[in-house]
Amino acid sequence: MVDVGQKEVTVREATASGRVETTAEVLDALRAGTMPKGDVIAAARLAGIMAVKRTPDLIPLCHPIGISGADVDLDLSAASHVEIRVSVRTAGGTGVEMEALTAVAAAGLTVIDMIKGTDPAASIEGIKVLTKTGGKTGDWVRPSER
């Protein structure tokens, strides 16, 4: 495990995103709140928040850090997918990119679990870090071509 004890404590934030590809019929049911397993969006949002807090238990050598905030948003406005976006904040000696990525994955897996009876071909796609702030390397924004 990398020693982060000498790193400067700064306010850090990371935002990650991904999407669950599904059918228009599933998206209509999600918007109407009529999926057989219940409130998919609320369950996925909760799974994302829980994943932020449990990231060091899931990712080997990931540091346990104090999380000061996490926002998990699921957008149903697209025609073919659920867009997931997670922002995580801390004041610490290491970043929160892994927490944001893990939350996107867990939220996506929860959506898959709750819609798989209706759309067994649903898939999670494009999980990536969009931005990060703080720390020695400062601010970073994903290049548009990637």
Q: Quick check: average pLDDT?
A: 95
Oligomer designation: single chain
Q: Helix proportion of residues, in percent?
A: 25-40%
Number-wise, the strands total 5
Figure out the total of helices.
3
Q: Please report which band the strand proportion falls in: under 5%, 5-15%, 15-25%, 25-35%, 35-45% or over 45%.
A: 25-35%
Low-pLDDT sequence parts: none
Largest sheet: 5 strands, antiparallel
Structural class by helix and strand composition = alpha+beta
How far the N terminus sits from the C terminus, by CA atoms, comes to 29 Å
Neighbour order of strands in the largest sheet: 2-3-1-4-5
Tell me the series of helices and strands, N- to C-terminal. Answer: EHHEEHEE
* Gyration radius, in Å: 16 Å
C-alpha geometry: elongated
Outline the fold blueprint.
Blueprint: E1 10-21, H1 24-32, H2 40-58, E2 69-75, E3 81-92, H3 97-115, E4 123-133, E5 140-141
Antiparallel strand pairs: 1-3, 1-4, 2-3, 4-5
Helix pairs in contact: 2-3
